[in-house]
Write a structure and sequence with these properties.
alpha/beta; Helicase, Ruva Protein, domain 3; Dna Topoisomerase Vi A Subunit, Chain: A, domain 2; 5-stranded mixed sheet; two-stranded antiparallel ribbon; 7 strands; elongated
């Protein structure tokens, strides 16, 4: 007797493609979804479709937004002379939770990783260089994660940016090596911002 139910297996397979979701968790999520009433299931599906349709990159900093510019880039009270470069939009949220940083951001959407076939051209480096052409930026803070790839990306960027006459600094190592910024607590991130150093 075949126990495999094709639509349920297909749903579990889709959940299994999400990061951090193993086979058993994917199956639990699929069964949970089946028990939703039709209204909730449709709202869940529509939220995915709407997010895919409406969320895009900010035209200035490449963070995620549903408008032309994100909330940080639209804010008049931000210090436009400082740009904090991060790997991922979740890192912007993590730094914002500290309430310590008042400058702007630039999201790379990844790091240089030759082993994974990711070179500088796959990141939003051209967009960052374009922003610096105005001459308003005085400092760029490298806030990539303290991993081998994050360090390599920060060093690569610092070599590109220093000839442009901007100060390039790096987050201090209050953030543990091998950790992701999105999981660091506010105090650790605040200390890392305060103790940043030149590269």
């Amino acid at each position: 007797m075949e126990r495999q139910i094709a639509p349920l297996a297909a749903l579990a397979e889709q959940f299994g493609q999400l990061p951090g979701i193993g086979r058993k968790t994917a199956q639990r999520l699929a069964y949970y979804t089946l028990h939703m009433d039709e209204e909730k299931a449709n709202a869940f599906a529509n939220a995915i479709v709407e997010a895919r349709r409406l969320v895009r990159r900010c035209e200035l900093c490449c963070d995620l937004t549903d408008r032309e510019l994100c909330a940080v880039c639209r804010a008049a009270n931000r210090d436009s002379s400082v740009i904090c470069v991060v790997e991922d939009p979740r890192d912007v949220m993590a730094i914002e939770r500290t309430h310590e940083y008042k400058g702007l951001y630039h999201v790379l959407h990844g790091v240089i990783s030759p082993l994974n076939g990711i070179g500088p051209e796959a990141l939003t480096i051209k967009e960052l260089l374009r922003r610096l052409e105005s001459g308003k930026t005085q400092e760029v803070i490298m806030a990539t994660n303290p991993t081998v790839e994050g360090e390599a990306t920060a060093i690569y960027l610092s070599r590109l940016l220093k000839p442009l006459g901007v100060t390039v600094s790096r987050l201090a190592y209050g953030v543990p090596v091998g950790a992701d910024l999105e999981y660091a607590d506010e105090i650790t991130l605040a200390r890392a911002l305060e103790g940043r150093r030149l590269i």
